[in-house]
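Thread: Modeling a multi-component assembly for a lab meeting

Hi all, long-time lurker, first post. My supervisor asked me to bring a structural picture of a complex we are working on to next week's group meeting, and I have zero experience with this. I have the sequence lines for every component (530 residues in total). Could someone generate the structure of the whole assembly? Inputs are pasted exactly as I received them:
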Amino acid sequence: MNKKEKSPERKPLILVVNDDGINARGIRMLGNIAQEFGRVVMIAPNNGRSGMSHAITFALPLRLRKISHCEGLEIYKTSGTPVDAVKLALSHILKDEKVDLLVSGINHGSNASISVIYSATVAAAIEGCLHGIPSVAFSVADYNNNYDFESARTPVQKVIQAALENGIPPHICLNVNIPNIPAKEVKGIKITRQALNCWQEEIEARQYPADTPYFWMGGSLQGIDNEKDTDYWAIKHNYVSLHPINVDWTDQAMMQELKKWKIKL
Amino acid sequence: MNKKEKSPERKPLILVVNDDGINARGIRMLGNIAQEFGRVVMIAPNNGRSGMSHAITFALPLRLRKISHCEGLEIYKTSGTPVDAVKLALSHILKDEKVDLLVSGINHGSNASISVIYSATVAAAIEGCLHGIPSVAFSVADYNNNYDFESARTPVQKVIQAALENGIPPHICLNVNIPNIPAKEVKGIKITRQALNCWQEEIEARQYPADTPYFWMGGSLQGIDNEKDTDYWAIKHNYVSLHPINVDWTDQAMMQELKKWKIKL
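Re: Modeling a multi-component assembly
Sure thing. I ran the full set together rather than chain by chain. Output:
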């Protein structure tokens, strides 16, 4: 299982990131698992940055601080977004090194279906992929503050092992969602497509004490796409979902359709 | 050209958003053009929110204020991100109305190639699309502060007209990039795919007066994918680029490939 057995001269270098912040349990578990496979550099935002998607920071200065350096494990935190964290790692901290794998998470909450578009956990994996690094995002469909991420251990280990052994083609990264059930109840792993559901907002209006209005954004996922080949279906039915994402968002069929529009300038 | 001629009983309702902020010239031009086609509701962030991608705000309250209401033109500003602005418009301001078209921009700067992933102008169009609204993002490949957006007028008019006439299928939105050249020098419009280039960071380290370090993120697009069918090539060669984006990011071929990994839990 450990890549050390295959290449004793050099351990794989694994970059570990997240969007729940450096103190989140999920990244500690992910770093712990990643250390079984190689040398780990961990970088994460100072605090939670969920829902930041692929946001980057260029109009403000970024802070970056090394907070721990043990044998085989360096830890950094930054004031930036999760994607900033990946950029700081690849273009500054590790600019002269080859990163063999990027793993993001383990996110506290599902990133299946349309959540891939809002998720900074997934965005961090996409950013790794854009830089040519095999990259995997991990999330658990749990929303309980006391969750210990133990049920995610085996799926995370198996996917990291398979990604290191098989590699991931250019422009593709992986999005793994794990159901929150005891490991022995997991039925297996399903290769899935992204369910095309929609996040339906509920906007709640309130008044500041000074009497001007403000708004809280809430909402729920509206499940219209619950086919058996989707990530949404898989985690609902106790499977781990393994969803391949391509960073080329072009719709090839629509390219042909648009030619019929015959726009003349 | 004006849809009023076709359906005198009801003008199309057009939602206009951007990421350069409510005072940007680009959104004023876009609102002005959209008014030729119907009733316009405009909403934008208080100030520039470039590079925010699909970020949303749920851990902080959002401000929203109507700043103008003339016949056929309502204008709002918000403390939220561009995607928040779309959500506030669709789920609060216009929750009981049918929006016929969402247009985003006109962004000051290209959103071709890999910039689609970082762009909040494009993200706002994706958000409209997720809500089932035909949505188009517009950007001009210009970086001069004095640019007046006049060269973008004809391409924007033509694409809005074509989108209203033809409609856009579900889960697809359009990303239009316009070269910064006089209108008469534009060679035409090209249906394109997204160039798969990479943004290469240059991180500049500085010291705060109090002696701790901080970092500025900069960089440049590395052009390895310059094929004739790309958005990147089109705007470099004086064409308007019309790129269809699908919000399903699944890589179908990789779904087959992943089955060969035979991961057993």
